[in-house]
Amino acid sequence: MPPWRYFSILIALQLTFVQFSLTYTIDDSLPFTKMVEKIPIAEYFKNATVYHPLYESMAKGTLPEGTYKALIQQDHLYIDNFLDAFSILAKREEDPERKKYLQGVAEEDYDAYWQGFYDKLNVTKAVHMVPPVLEYCVFELTAAKRADIAVALATFYPAYIVWIEMGHHIAPIANLANNTNHPYFDFVSSTVEFAISTPTLKFLTVVNEYYARLGNDTKTKQQMLHAYTRSVQYQFKFAEAIFSMTEVESVPAPKFTELVDPWIAPDAQQRVVNHALYTEIGVGNLPLDRFAILTQQGHLFMKGF
Measured between alpha carbons, how far is 137 from 273 in angstroms, rounded to an integer? Predict the structure, then answer.
């Protein structure tokens, strides 16, 4: 294992189990996109992802095909979640112009783009996210639902800046202009194009505008920077998880009930269905005080549910 990998694991463990503090000072003269570069731990994870062997070997064309297929499947699931998060933000945003922008991102349609890969690779869309990707998506959706909109956008920023810098990094490695037979030409070229696309650069402007509008609200600015730092770690974990995968999900997963039914013992199920409580309710013999308790507890359960 390369020495940098040991260090990355150590840092990941520290971030997982230790609440680290923000050991930098906010410089109000800097926009958000420049301020994040002052966070050492975030810069480490960003660079470790940009130069990750997953993307470098993809650019060289040496990435195992199974891993490449897994990348396509998991990235598709992530992007679906990403767009859902923008939809949530659009519903929360009250400013008409900002709402219009967020909704526009949410409505972007990449189905044909992904289907092109599936047809070419003879795989289907995956059903399950691998745990690190699921964890990343839950983090972003939670921010979209509960955090300040500016903070939520900060969690999305690594999905832009990491892929911008990675696109610039892998472009000369892949040398697509002189390598039209590159095995991963389509995904590499789209990544390179993403790095310089108008929608990508527009997001950088938008997140800077949200940050600037905070003015002297140092607390929310710190939350944005903290959210970015956490999120860029997830980008690294995404790359690590995919790089370790050699198989893809080709068969649709069974339905939840199909998974659960074999594990429900018929006898145990019948004991609940035929319980004396429900029998007495059915015939009208349950004492009112017990019925009152049932009503109270049922109310609490449904409220929690």
Answer: 38
Does residue 155 have a pLDDT over 70? Answer: yes
Q: In terms of C-beta density within 10 A (0-12 exposed, 13-18 middle, 19 or more buried), how is residue 187 classed?
A: middle
pLDDT digits over 213-267, tens only?
999 999 999 999 999 999 999 999 999 999 999 877 655 555 656 545 554 556 6
**CATH class of the region 3-18+30-243:** mainly alpha
What are the tokens at 265? 């013992």
CB 288 within 8 Å of CB 278: no
Cα–Cα nearest to 234, from 138, 102, 106: 138
Q: Quote the radius of gyration of the chain (alpha carbons, Å).
A: 24
Q: Which residue has the tokens 């039914």?
A: 261
Q: Do the beta carbons of residue 183 and residue 62 sit within 8 Å?
A: no
Which sequence spans correspond to the domains of the chain? Answer: 3-18+30-243, 256-304
Q: How far apart are CA 228 and CA 152, in angstroms?
A: 9
Q: Hey, what long-range contacts does 217-225 have (CB within 8 A, 24 or more apart)?
A: 218/26, 220/148, 220/150, 220/151, 221/26, 222/22, 222/26, 223/147, 223/148, 223/151, 223/154, 224/32, 224/150, 224/151, 224/153, 224/154, 225/22, 225/26, 225/32, 225/35, 225/36, 225/39, 225/154
Cα–Cα separations (whole angstroms), residue 278 to 291, 296, 302: 10, 16, 18
What number is the average pLDDT over the span 107-135? 93
| Cα gap 62→234, rounded to integer Å | 24
What's the pTM value of the predicted model, to 2 decimals? 0.75
With contact defined as beta carbons under 8 Å apart, do 198 and 141 qualify?
Answer: no
pLDDT at 38 over 70: yes
